[in-house]
């Protein structure tokens, strides 16, 4: 509501992490697409083939193969960090529970 304390800015801030990650994902996707299309067309030009339109390239297998390879490695890295940070501890770390505290206890 417009009359609420903080208004739209507070609503945006409440979801700022999701918005930031969404924008970063979108930006990286666009930059990867642009770079990959440019590289593909450079290769095609050097082989005297016709250049590929962005519409044809985005529906082609090369772009999605590259994207899924990249996403697979990134998601594996993030998943490993998240899962390991839940179960493993680092003595002296402010983000970690004390080493001798049970998993179901709150600090």
TrEMBL record:
Transmembrane segments annotated in the record for this chain: 12-34
Source superkingdom: Bacteria
The species this protein was found in: Niabella ginsengisoli
Keywords carried by this UniProt record: Membrane, Transmembrane, Transmembrane helix
Name of the protein in question: Uncharacterized protein
One Pfam family of this chain: DUF6766
């Amino acid at each position: 509501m417009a009359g609420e304390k903080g208004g739209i800015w507070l609503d945006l801030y409440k979801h700022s992490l999701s918005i930031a990650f969404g924008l970063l994902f979108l930006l990286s996707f666009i930059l990867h697409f642009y770079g990959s299309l440019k590289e593909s067309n450079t290769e095609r030009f050097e082989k005297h083939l016709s250049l590929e339109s962005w519409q044809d390239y985005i529906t082609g297998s090369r772009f999605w193969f590259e994207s899924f390879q990249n996403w697979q490695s990134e998601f594996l890295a993030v998943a490993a960090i998240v899962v390991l940070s839940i179960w493993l501890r680092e003595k002296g770390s402010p983000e970690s529970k004390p080493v001798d505290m049970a998993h179901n206890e709150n600090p």
